[in-house]
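Hi V.,

Quick status before I head out on leave. The structure for the redesign project is tokenized and pasted below; the design run finished overnight.
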């Protein structure tokens, strides 16, 4: 379902937005989605308090139209690696694509990063052929510089200060070492 955009409002996620965001816009589609949504909302609250997660929600004429998540790079559970940056981990405005909602959410994320004293913002975008999620071309249009590429994933960066290093993808030092005739179990602890 697409609808014509006339008035866009961007705000911090509020209680009445949680199901829309927690269900990734699939409000009451299935019992399974509803159950996942409950768990995700609990997770949002933990990550907000413990890790600095921020979620912005877009409303068009009072109706939910999209959302964006961002974290301080130092606490982001999915990487990338860097310092003094915010990371956008999820942007969804598919139902209003091409009508300025994604751009408004990105601008709100940049404002949040500046408000928190960050020196830049980054995002992992993808070069998909047939998928809408986190498209690399959109981030290029928003003025983000591609700083690293790994297969179809690209790390994009926008700096607000000249004294900031670009982020980078996490590179694992782990190397699997098989032992003939044995089952190898590698444990990872933090």
């Amino acid at each position: 379902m697409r609808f014509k955009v006339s008035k866009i409002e961007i705000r911090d996620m509020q209680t009445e937005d949680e199901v829309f965001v927690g269900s990734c816009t699939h409000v009451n589609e299935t019992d399974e989605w509803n159950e996942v949504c409950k768990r995700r909302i609990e997770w949002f609250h933990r990550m907000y308090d413990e890790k600095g997660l921020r979620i912005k929600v877009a409303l068009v004429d009072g109706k939910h139209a999209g959302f964006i998540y961002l974290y301080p790079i130092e606490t982001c559970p999915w990487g990338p690696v860097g310092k003094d940056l915010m990371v956008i981990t999820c942007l969804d405005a598919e139902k209003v694509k091409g009508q300025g909602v994604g751009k408004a959410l990105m601008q709100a994320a940049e404002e949040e990063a500046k408000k928190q004293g960050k020196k830049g913002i980054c995002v992992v975008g993808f070069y998909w052929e047939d998928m809408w999620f986190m498209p690399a071309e959109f981030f290029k249009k928003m003025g983000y510089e591609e700083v690293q590429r790994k297969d179809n994933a690209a790390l994009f960066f926008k700096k607000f200060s000249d004294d900031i290093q670009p982020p980078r993808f996490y590179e694992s030092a782990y190397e699997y070492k098989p032992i003939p005739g044995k089952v190898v179990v590698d444990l990872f602890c933090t």
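Above is the designed sequence. The longest strand covers residues 63-72.

G. will cover questions while I'm gone.

Best,
W.
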